[in-house]
Amino acid sequence: MKFRTLKGLQDILPPDIAVWQHIESTAKHIFKNYGYQEIRLPIMESTDVFTRSIGETSDIVEKEMYTFEDKGGRSVTLRPEGTASFVRAYVQHHIYNNPAPQKFFYTGPMFRYERPQAFRFRQFYQIGVEAMGIDDPKLDAEIISMLSRLLSGIGLEGLDVQITSIGCKKCRPDYRAALKNFLKEKLDSFCSDCKRRYDLNPLRILDCKVPGCIESRKGSPPVIDYLCDECDIHFEGLKKNLAELNVPHTVNPSLVRGLDYYTKTAFEVTSENLGSQSAVAAGGRYDSMVDEFGGPPTPGIGFAMGMERIIPLVSEGPEIFLCPLGEEAAEKALLLTEQLRSEGLWAEMNYDAASLRSQMRKANKIGAKKVVVIGDDEIKNNKAVIKNMLDREEVTINLNVSEFIKIIQNNNASPPLKKGD
Ligand code: ATP
Ligand code: MG
Q1: Residue 309 and residue 351 in one domain
Q2: 155 alpha carbon – ligand 1 mean position (Å)
Q3: Which pTM value belongs to this model?
Q4: DSSP letter string, 381-403
C-alpha cells in the first residue's frame, strides 16, 4: 500500500472505539456529579502560549513540540497539553468573573514529537479537568478523589496514586540553591542538556531521562524538605483530607513533573501493568499561571489522563493463554491451565495443533494479558518464557503453577521496556 499513518500516530477503529466511548461516557458522568462542564479548545495556539508556561527548558518545549510557521508568518504549535490553552481561554474570556470554583473538562488529541514506544505516541488523547479560583487543599483532595473514582469506575486495578508538593515561588529559590549546591560537585557527570539546565533551571535536571543523570542525581535533597510555611500547611491539609476521604495514596518526594508551571500539589497515578510508560494520569496545582497570562492572580489545579494507556488496561480477557506445541506439551498445558483455574485465575489454552503464529493471533484476539509457549525444549528444561501482551516484555520462569501465579500477580517483576519503536 502506498500511504500509511505517520510514525507515532494511529487510527482508532471498531471494535476498539467502543472502549474509548465507554471511558469517555464514564468520565463525563462522574465529571457531571462534581460540577465540571465541557470546554472545547483549538488544537493549535500561538507558540508563546506553551513556551512561556510549560517552560523554555522543559523537554516538551525543547524537543517535543510540533511548531511551524503558518502562511501568515506566525509561529504556531499543535498543543502538547491542555492546561496552557485552557488558561489562555480562561483569561481571554474573563471566566474568573464567574463564582469560584469554575470547573471544566476537555477531551482531545495532544501532539508531542517523542520517540514512539509502547503506550507513547506522537498524537495521543487526553481527558483532562481544570478547577479554578480556590486555593484550599480540600479542592486538591476532591480532585484526586474524583480521579481515583473515575479510574476505578472504568475498572482499573493495581494503581498507585502518588502525591507530593513542589513548593511555590516563595520557597523555590531556597530549594533551587540547595539543589545547585548538591549538584555542583557532580556536574561533570551530567549530560550537556543538564549542564545547561544547571544555570537556567536546575529543577529540570530532576526530570532528565538520561540514565547517567538519573544515577548522578540520586540522593539529591527532596523539595518537601524546603517548603515554606504556607506550602507545608497546604500539603499537610491535603494529606489529612485524602485520609478523611479514604483515598489510598503514597507520598513520593521524588515525584517531578515535566512542566514548569506547577506549584504546591503535584500528583501522578501509575499502573503496574504498563512497563516503563507507567503514568496513566498526572496533574497538579498552578497558582501563578493565570497571573502570568495577564489575568488577576487566581489559583488553579487540574489533571490529564492518557487514553492510550487506559484502553489496554480495561480490555477483558484471560490472565494467561498457554500455547502448546506438540502432544506432550498440550497435556502439560491442560494440567497447568486447570491448576491455574483452581487458584482462581482465568486461564485458557489452545487445543488444536495450530502453528505458533496462529496461536499468538488467537491469544491477541481474545485479549489474553499474558502468553506462554510450551514446546519440547520448555518441557525438557522445565523453563518457559511468559510474554506480557501489553508491554511485550518477556520473562523466563520455571514451568510450575506457583511461578505462573507469581508472575501473573506481580507484573512489576518484568524488566523495563527497551528503547526503540
Ligand atoms: P511521561 O512521564 O510518561 O512522559 P508526562 O509527564 O510527559 O508523561 P503529562 O504531560 O503529565 O505526561 O500528561 C498526562 C498524561 O498523558 C500522562 O500521564 C500519560 O498518561 C499521557 N501521555 C503523556 N505523553 C504521552 C504520549 N506521548 N503518548 C501517550 N500518552 C501520553
Ligand atoms: Mg513526557
Answers
A1: no
A2: 20
A3: 0.81
A4: HTEEEEEETTT--EEEEESSHHH
